């Protein structure tokens, strides 16, 4: 039996355990920053923002943004922080310390209310921990690629308590493969990471599904709203691509720029307390049907704009949950409008998450992962997993058709 045959299973277990520690650490730190920013002890971020004063809502994100900008200014003075996915797939050396520090700054910024996803930080930290753990093992370049991608997916799975979603993120988005070796590695590492992080996350899911009567027509409706999901997903992608500066900003202007973005975020949260953070608050009120048509429309407009504002200022963060929240807001607008003006009785929660799955499929180009991730977040009736998959596959198919049409027209 070769040394590699023995060491690879050990590496899988080690990576899963370290990813769980990374997920637990980022979750704990995120909650600490949220509680300090909005001065609350119990409940969700939405509760904390809603109970805080207008002054704290405005100044908390501004101060957190300025501090994050100062930290990034110090970190980037010598070199940029590379993309994790590019580093893994191109078999480059992983700058562990630089990537870990960048992850902690992301947690600081998102915890203080920035409109960015928190999933980027645990992915980077888990990959950095995993790379350190397997550094002395006899592994091939492909082994290392699978393990680091699995670590990143496991970090995502740990913070959201979605082991299947974390595993498919690694295989379908980072590795783009269904190979049994990669899939088995990703499933085991993600399951271990979720278990290790459980004392901190308590295996709580982001959303609480309400009791709702659903119609079989939801399958038809899922396909019907695909064009809306494609339009929103493409618009979101293009806005973020325009906003993201290349190369990364390195000068002292990061401090006032991100601080001002935080101030704009804070002022908007005085009227819309759902806006701060990664998008969980918007998903919560969408599932709870706690929005009006006007409120949902405002969130649909402001969430991507504020996310783009932080990127334009030089900040870095995840985009999965902001895209998910934008899709959920769009689904809420559609459901609430139809119920109010057409006399229908559609489930706002179901339509919100269906549209969210479609948007996420467009932005990530992974429809099966998008459907499973949304379902695992909310844990609605299993029948809705089929609905989410229909919406995601239809939206993804329309995006592919649109791209082929555009390419043929350009040729």
Automatic annotation (TrEMBL):
Annotated GO MF terms: chloride channel activity
One Pfam short name: Voltage_CLC
Compartments where found: Membrane
Where does the sequence pass through the membrane? 58-75, 146-170, 182-202, 214-237, 249-272, 284-302, 309-338, 344-362, 382-401
Signal peptide per UniProt: none
Q: Which InterPro entries match?
A: Cl-channel_core (IPR014743), ClC (IPR001807), ClC-type_chloride_channel (IPR050368)
Spell out the protein name for this chain: Chloride ion channel protein
